[in-house]
Amino acid sequence: MHAWLCENPTGIDALQWKELPTPQPGAGEVLIEIRAASLNFPDLLIVQNKYQMKPALPFVPGSEYAGVVQAVGEGVTQLKVGQSVACLSGTGGFATHTIAPAALCMPLPAGFSHVDAAAFIMIYATSHHALVDRAQLKAGETVLVLGAAGGVGTAAIQIAKVMGARVIAAASTDEKCELCKSLGADATINYTKENLRDAIKAATGGKGPEVIYDPVGGDFAEPAFRSIGWRGRYLVVGFAAGPIPALPLNLPLLKGASIVGVFWGDFARREPQANAAMMKELAQWYAQGKIKPVIDRTMPMAELKEAYAHMGSRGVKGKLVMVN
Predict the structure, then answer these.
(1) Which of 114, 119, 134, 274 gives 36 a disulfide partner, CB atoms 3.0 to 4.6 angstroms apart?
(2) Mean predicted confidence (pLDDT) in 23-51
(3) Nearest-CA neighbor of 165 among 192, 182, 148, 144?
(4) What percentage of the chain exceeds 70 in pLDDT?
C-alpha cells in the first residue's frame, strides 16, 4: 500500500508519499481499500500540530473516507468482504488502504457513490446534530448560516430546508452566494461587501434570526450575535477564521438568547444510539434526494499537497475529495 505519512507535524510540506506494508485487521477491525477521501478543516490543522487530537507519530492524515472492505478481523459480523463503507476515524484516509474500527464504518446502500460518501459523515452529522438536536429548529424559523458555502455550511442549508426553515446564507463572494441560492437559501449576504448587521436586519425585517449557525468565529461572531432574535440560539460549531471570539455576556442576557456548543464527535461517543438513529435518517434523506454533498472537485490522491493549498486559499465551495 501507499500512504501520505506525517512523521513531523510542521505542515503540509513535511508530508511524504511512501510505500508501506499492507496491514491486517485485528479484532473488531476491517481493512479498507480506499476509493475516495475528503479534505476537512481538521485535516489542515492536524498536520500543523494545531488540532485538539494529536495522534502518535508517524501517522497518516485523512479523517474521512469511503471504500471497499478487503478483510475483516476477529469478531466482525456486521461487515463483509466486498462491502462498500464510509468511515470517519480521524486519521488514515490519505492512502490506498487503511485499518478502521468496524464500529465506525457506515455501510453504504446501493447507489451511494464513494465520492459522495467520503464527503458525507462529518458535514451532515455536524449540521444535523447542531440544528435538529442542539438548536431544536422548528419549521418556519429563520436560520442564519455563516461560512455558508463551505462543507458544513452547505450541509446546514440543506438540512435547515428539509426542516422547513427559512435560510439566510452569508458567504464571502457573489459566486458563493449564488451556490447557496442553488441549494435553497432564501436570502444571501456577501459579508465582504455588505455590513453584516444591516444586512441581517434587512433580511429579517428587524426581528433577527432565531438560530445562527457559526462554523467561522473570528470577527463576524459579535455582530452576528448582536443581531440574533429573541430567544435565539447561537450555535458554536467551529473557528475556521482562526481567532476564537469572546462575546460580552450581557448580549445573551438582553436577547434572552442561548450560546449552544456543538461537538458532534463527543455526542457520537457519549450517545451512540442517538447518533446511529441520526445517521440512519441522514442516509434516508440522501436516498430520497433531499440532501447531497456539494463537491468542489475531485483530485488524484497523489495531488494531496495541491488540494491542501487550494483549501488553504479559502477557494473551496463544498468539499474537496481525493480519489484513488
Answers:
(1) 114
(2) 93
(3) 144
(4) 100
